[in-house]
Amino acid sequence: MPFDHNDHYHPLLLRNLPPGGRTALDVGCGTGRFARRLAARGYEVDALDPSAEVIAEARAVGGGPRFRRADVTEEALPAAHYDVITCLASLHHMPFDTVTRLRDALAPGGTLLVLGCYAGATWWDVVASPANAAARAAVYASERLRGERTPPLRPPVQRPDMRLPDIRREAARLLPGSSVRHLLFWRYLLTYEKT
Ligand SMILES: C[S@@+](CC[C@H](N)C(=O)[O-])C[C@H]1O[C@@H](n2cnc3c(N)ncnc32)[C@H](O)[C@@H]1O
């Protein structure tokens, strides 16, 4: 798929980083595109993913983050350590209450940013579907103009099974003070600041 919905939201995520952060954890990092963007901003980045294939690819590209093969639901995360924890299109691969492990690993004042996927249709699909088709066509055309390229390795995908209202309810219960913003391309942005 030429237009990547997750990569599309990287600039939004970068705009939501807290000022002055130094340490970051990217959960379900895939081939590491967002982890590298954090490293380029000066963060010391740990990046985790249980897939041996994507971690091998991430390490081959390099770019600063410490890529580790690990399942975040089992990994012992350092307590109160990270200034930023990001989780892009991966929370729906795990039980939702994994967010409490991530909350515990946040340093005081740290920020958790989840770019999440939800189940079910919403009224936004009326706009999202044509916008998606247009974006895909534009990216496809520009790639053709620049010449053929090797398709990138795709990390494992899974269908989400939680609907947006359930995500909002669970986020409010487990992460009081968090916000969940509905985004156009079948995504939401959960933001939580640990006080
Ligand atoms: C759809 S991919 C997203 C990858 C990347 N964040 C991106 O934006 O391209 C979901 C990733 O979550 C990873 N994942 C699945 N279960 C996980 C777990 N328990 N702990 C950490 N990562 C997990 C998968 O291996 C996969 O690479």
Can you describe this structure?
By secondary structure, this protein is of the alpha/beta class. It has a single domain, classed as Vaccinia Virus protein VP39 (Rossmann fold), CATH 3.40.50. 35% of the residues lie in helices and 24% in strands. The protein has helices spanning 5-8, 10-15, 33-40, 52-61, 98-105, 125-145, 164-174; strands spanning 23-27, 44-49, 66-69, 82-88, 106-117, 179-183, 187-193. It has a seven-stranded mixed beta sheet with strand order 3-2-1-4-5-7-6, with helices on both faces. The longest helix has 21 residues, at 125-145. The chain is globular, with a radius of gyration of 17 Å. S-adenosylmethionine is lined by residues 6, 27-30, 34, 48-51, 54, 71-73, 88-90, 93-94, 155-157.
Poorly predicted ranges? none
Whole-number total of structural domains: 1
| Structure annotation, total helices | 7
Relevant CATH superfamily: Vaccinia Virus protein VP39
Enumerate the strands of the largest sheet in spatial order, edge to edge or round the barrel.
3-2-1-4-5-7-6
Bound molecules: S-adenosylmethionine
CATH topology: Rossmann fold
What string gives the helices and strands in order? HHEHEHEEHEHHEE
What is the annotated CATH architecture? 3-Layer(aba) Sandwich
Major sheet description? 7 strands, mixed
Distance between the termini: 39 Å
- Indicate the CATH class: Alpha Beta
Total strand segments: 7
How large is the radius of gyration? 17 Å
Strand content: 15-25%
Shape: globular
- Share of helical residues: 25-40%
Mean pLDDT: 93
Helix-strand makeup class = alpha/beta
